[in-house]
Amino acid sequence: MAKYYFPAIFDPGTDGSEGYTITFPDLPGCITEGSDLSESIRMAKDVLEGFLYGMEEDGETIPSPSTPSNIDVPLGGFVTIIEAWTDYIREEMENKAIKKTLTIPKWLNDAAESEGINFSQLLQFAIKDRLGIKRKI
Questions:
Q1: How many helices (H) and strands (E) does the chain have?
Q2: Burial of 74: CB neighbours in 10 Å, binned 0-12, 13-18, 19+
Q3: How far is CA 60 from CA 37, 121, 130, 132, in A?
Q4: Where are the domains of the chain?
Q5: pTM score, two decimals?
Q6: Pfam families recorded for this chain (predicted)?
Q7: d(Cα 117, Cα 115) in Å, to the nearest integer?
């Protein structure tokens, strides 16, 4: 499994709200926010997993995480380590349903529907059989 740990900066800003803006100093552009601490931590994990998955898919080099004590933190903010498992995202993306449009004769459609055939399931079985894939979907 691809597991990563990166430091995240939680910045409360200056508007007095309970929320945070979360950035990852080692990953420019990886940013999110949450309306309170609990949501902010969930959002930080979610954005980190998606960002790192994208880097893996694009063949980019994942940098080494900074040492938290070397990170400058804004007034009232803090640094915490966020854990990310990109294999979960990869599995979710690989099993994401993709809509395909196909054309069959009306008589075949009518016969299949009268037998209660699930077209999506049948197409998946047929493609797997044709490709020699034994893995369950």
A1: 4, 4
A2: middle
A3: 31, 36, 34, 32
A4: 3-94, 97-137
A5: 0.71
A6: HicB_lk_antitox
A7: 6
